[in-house]
Description:
- The chain is α/β, with parallel strands linked by helices.
- Helix content is 43%, strand content 14%.
- It is built from eleven helices and eight strands.
- The longest helix has 19 residues, at 180-198.
- It is globular, with a radius of gyration of 17 Å.
Amino acid sequence: MGKPKFIVANFKMNKTNREAEEFFKNLVSGIKTVNSEVAICPTFLCLENALSVCHKYGIKVGAQNCYFEDFGAFTGEVSAFMLSSIGVDYVILGHSERRNYFFETDDIINKKIKSVLKNNLKPIICIGETSSERKNGQEKEKIKAQIDFALKGILPRKFAEITIAYEPIWAIGTGQTVDPQKAEEIFSFIKNYLICTYGEDSVRNIRLLYGGSLNENNAKELLNIPNVDGGLIGGASLNLDKFMSILKGLESEGEEAK
Ligand code: PGA
């Protein structure tokens, strides 16, 4: 069986507490046979519920954002320190929706990544180009710049805690995905860039995810591309049947390879 994939569900601003709880309960009863590492990222409100239902089944729990100060007069924010105090494992940072709708800059994202690592949480750092950057052939420049900003000032010994999710912005929630050949080229570019810039030993354990309109029909192909360690799933993670079918599809890959 191949290396287990890392599958992250990003609920975004969806599901009430009650809806999320029902999802978690059904998920844990269906997930026993799954080999992938799974992390569920619901809204802040549902985190404690997710932790109490999912953690004992080995399902990890992540937040979708945090603030970089530990505490203080920052109305409306939740800190990495607080997330860590309840036992959260991961925090998604730099998602294009945070960059676009909430004006998060590379500098803010870098501060958040540092705060997450300082508080012993693991960041899932999102990067990716817009459709016009893709059309103008600027996707690699964009990826390089976002990686360099994200990792600025972070000690290489912390790199093993980091996951990078490549999510082309034009593919998020649109039903469009990267052509698998192009995805292969981009992931090998990201891997090589990390190795050449930061050294093979430092980046060996950084996991690379693909995100953007993953679903039960395309996940197996896209997540088995070389250098892809898993997927970040938005829309299709909200429906338990679809989500389970993605996870089970990855299992059958392992079975066939036996
Ligand atoms: P999507 O979202 O699967 O709905 O495209 C992915 C994401 O934004 O993380």
